[in-house]
């Protein structure tokens, strides 16, 4: 290193408050950075400063754990970034590994930036409900222009060094030693004027149509955010950079940062982040962590190539697992093969230019067959035939006879009893539920359901499969609908009851989409296919030929029942696949839902037939009846030991049911609403609808309220019986 260059080592291992040697906490680290800079400034022998990270990483930003504490981070870092910028000696950032969040903001304070070709940069604060609070929203647009800065700040995306160079975010990229290159540059620029390199002094580059651009961008951000505040406030901070001088823009950034901190959304996202990590750490009752079975030469059979089978096969090929796809006859096989090929072609296009190639034309990696004899060699079967217990049992009996002894037998049922399916085999310890979500090649959730006899190694293998498929595996117990669908039943039931009482599919969907769901219950039902539930209800004797003669239209087993979904199915309205369901679509398989006047007429006729008085139902009632009945079921699930904790339920909802991340999951949401309020509302609706048992508050919820609105992390300690797990 040249004697003229002073080096400030900026510890990179993620948090500012996890600096192992000298510094133990954020403020101390910031103090050390400030002291280093002041020392360099005061020392006449130092002519330039280079800031780099340790161990090949510049900085991954702040520790997510610190985000609930308002005094931390951006707000404290901002003045130091200004201090760097105001240095009379050139300061060069040497960016290796990552420069994210506060790390990139420090680099923006430097006068020059040199990056390694493999480095990545970004301002990901938005993804945890915040905004870059160390003046990053003001400096970045001045450096790379408003459109590119808005894109980075409102999405939180990471960009590679090559793109950073094109945008002008870095001055130079190098393949070899970044630190040496930064020092070389520092020495070269000694004595050159620093004014033009100080971003706070630069104007934001003008756009010919800035107003119109900003208006359009704001509409887009709002539409995508659905109640998630951070993207919109990120937008407002960048907008301030275009309208105000730097110092005022920084003040606005700080105000907006405080709004986000106090909104509770950052805490919800932080909770969601740690909840996902918690569900991976699943252990046997004795606390023994399971050893995962490593399978590198697994041959997997996907049985049934319908909606789910197609997505599952696509995910397996993407995970580089050899697959045999089996169908009942050639007609279904060809249809399924065609659909899988379309999906894989699409995936291959998305992956173009990346390191991984999809090898799906190779029969050793992907085979389609109707020959059951191929089952001899597979290590793992995922069955995805129709939701019909008799059919599933017949298939599992066959599998048990044909598959090799160690093969794991998985069923992708939505709700059926794993133990009953396992009873058709001679190896119930190897039978397990693997509940994928539609579309299975997109959705991250995999609910893993163990039965009475399922072995720990079968669970571990299913968890490993989830990991290999880059999915979030959540282990749950066996009950009708497991966790996700069991909580969904009362939610959908309420949605349909609301239609009976006077609402419309699009009104109910709107309320839940405004809450933040990607799609409301009726759009979701159209996407999944109404026939799946219909088949299940027929199997339960709730509708169809096994319904006892003389049954009341709107009552089953002494409870309120709505035949509306059955009536739609009887008319062939299965949703998107038939082009008609709760909405109408442009064609069978179409995706654009349009409100259907036929449905409106049908609903009013239905109300007349059953003498139901149509009433106006407000948004609050729609939201509360749908969400609180779902949450109520969650408390019942926890009390029965079906899931290990509220985090498991929340991870399931965040990854499989489109629950808005900024609301942390249904159980977290309940804790933010306050359990006494949830209980009071359930009591009110239950009194108004005494024939709806799912509105009756769960005993566990009542207990948690009685002990004084216990905080979420203590809930499980109030249960006398904890999850049996195995
Ligand atoms: P689907 O009706 O689209 O496909 C079922 C496929 O199984 C058909 O292609 C059929 O030919 C095939 N099949 C039937 N009997 C067979 C046999 N004996 N041998 C080989 N193949 C056979 O149904 P979908 O929607 O794919 O559902 C499959 C399973 O996944 C069901 O248990 C369902 O409950 C479950 N599921 C469905 C979800 C959805 O959103 N559609 C979500 C999660 C689970």
From TrEMBL:
One of its GO terms (molecular function) is (3S)-3-hydroxyacyl-CoA dehydrogenase (NAD+) activity. It catalyses: (3E,5Z)-tetradecadienoyl-CoA = (2E,5Z)-tetradecadienoyl-CoA; (3S)-hydroxydecanoyl-CoA + NAD(+) = 3-oxodecanoyl-CoA + NADH + H(+); a (3S)-3-hydroxyacyl-CoA + NAD(+) = a 3-oxoacyl-CoA + NADH + H(+); (2E)-hexadecenedioyl-CoA + H2O = (3S)-hydroxyhexadecanedioyl-CoA. Residues 303-478 form the 3-hydroxyacyl-CoA dehydrogenase NAD binding domain. The keyword Nucleus does not apply. Pfam families: 3HCDH (PF00725), 3HCDH_N (PF02737), ECH_1 (PF00378). Transmembrane segments: none annotated. GO terms for cellular component: peroxisome. Residues 539-559 are annotated as: Disordered. Its EC number is 1.1.1.35, 4.2.1.17, 5.3.3.8. Gene3D superfamilies: 1.10.1040.50, 2-enoyl-CoA Hydratase, Chain A, domain 1 (3.90.226.10), NAD(P)-binding Rossmann-like Domain (3.40.50.720). Pathway: Lipid metabolism; fatty acid beta-oxidation. SUPFAM superfamilies: 6-phosphogluconate dehydrogenase C-terminal domain-like, ClpP/crotonase, NAD(P)-binding Rossmann-fold domains. The keyword Ligase does not apply. Belongs to the enoyl-CoA hydratase/isomerase family. Monomer. This is Peroxisomal bifunctional enzyme.
